[in-house]
Amino acid sequence: MGTDIHCFVEQKMYRTDTYETDPTGKWILIHKTNHAGTWISIDKWTKDSMAILYPERNEGPVWNVEREDMVFTDRNYGLFAILANQRNSENMPYISAPRGLPEDVSAEIPPQIRALEGHDTTWFTAKELIDYNWDQVFEFEDENMNGEKIYETVNYRECGSRLLEVINLIVARNNPADFRLIITFDC
Asked: Is the CB of residue 101 less than 8 Å from the CB of residue 109?
């Protein structure tokens, strides 16, 4: 049994100033722009018919993101170590210890993580991951099946290449600071 990653995506969205005209034709500000923005899940959510038909079973949230609909599901222990010190038996330098859920996380995501029995939940903005120094190589000593010492290397760029491809597709030409990945692991 191995460790899997579950990756949710949020986008920070902003309301714009809303104006209407009064009876004289003068423009009146109805709503002022929310410059702080609001994080909104942009995952593909599916209604769970079993949770609706049998609520007494408490089988999980009514809405969930199916694993095949998640933006990133690759099992890559080197990447897990780099992202959040998961499966990091060689003590590789990592981006951040698990941060938990952000305070302003989309309401749909925490119940999904509880249903997955996720652990070591963390989050990153796309900008953080794009700006990270992926041009690192970590070397460590190991031994082969015969007990002989060997030297292994972990190339961070190789480990993170698929995740970075996905992030670049999500962000496209938008501001990467306005996209956030919520990541949890299960065993």
From this structure: yes
**Token pair listed for 54:** 């049998």
pLDDT at 33: 65
Distances in Å between the alpha carbon of 115 and those of 39, 132, 184?
A: 21, 31, 12
**18-39 pLDDT, tens per residue?**
777 788 888 776 666 667 889 9
User: Residue 153: pLDDT above 90?
Assistant: yes
Q: 0.70 cut: is pTM over it?
A: yes
Which region holds residue 114: left if phi is over 0, alpha if psi is between -120 and 50, else beta? alpha
Contact (Cβ atoms closer than 8 angstroms) between residue 109 and residue 171: no
Which DSSP symbol is given to 13? E
User: Could you tell me what percentage of the chain is helix, strand and coil, using 3-state DSSP and rounding each to the nearest 5?
Assistant: 30, 30, 40
Contact (Cβ atoms closer than 8 angstroms) between residue 129 and residue 103: no
pLDDT in tens, 52-69: 888 888 877 888 899 999
Residues sharing a CB contact under 8 Å with residue 12, sequence separation 6 or more, in sequence order: 37, 38, 39, 40, 177, 178, 179, 180
What is the crossing angle of helices 156-171 and 77-84, to 10°?
A: 70
How does strand 4-13 pair with strand 179-186? antiparallel
Question: Distance between CA 34 and CA 40 in Å, rounded?
Answer: 14
State the pLDDT at residue 48.
86
